[in-house]
Design a protein that fits this description.
- The chain has one domain.
- It has a 5-stranded antiparallel sheet with strand order 2-1-3-4-5.
- By secondary structure, it is of the alpha+beta class.
- The protein has 3 helices and 5 strands.
- The chain has helices at 32-42, 46-50, 80-83, and strands spanning 12-18, 23-30, 53-60, 65-70, 74-77.
Length: 84
């Protein structure tokens, strides 16, 4: 039987979505700092530059999206004016 760990509000996941429709969770149950580092890596690597990766998100323990990047658009959430 599979064992599931429930994330708390201080843990984050990073998921990349591919133009083919699939996705991959690349980080799970990590700190905010580790999630942001992974987010920046997966939004600036070769796969993202050529369009293999279509979208990358960070979600928190409540499954809310905290950051989103979309190929061809860049960071779409949060908006720059909301961060200031």
């Amino acid at each position: 039987m599979a064992e599931y760990k429930i994330m708390n509000v201080n843990e984050f996941s990073v998921t990349q979505f591919f133009k083919t429709g699939g996705n991959e969770k690349v980080r799970d149950h990590v700190s905010a700092e580790e999630a942001v580092k992974a987010f920046h890596h997966y939004t600036s690597n070769v796969a993202s530059r050529v369009g293999i990766t279509a979208r990358v998100i960070i979600t928190d323990g409540g499954d809310c999206v905290n950051m989103e990047w979309i190929h061809g658009k860049g960071i779409t959430f949060p908006l720059a004016e909301d961060v200031k």
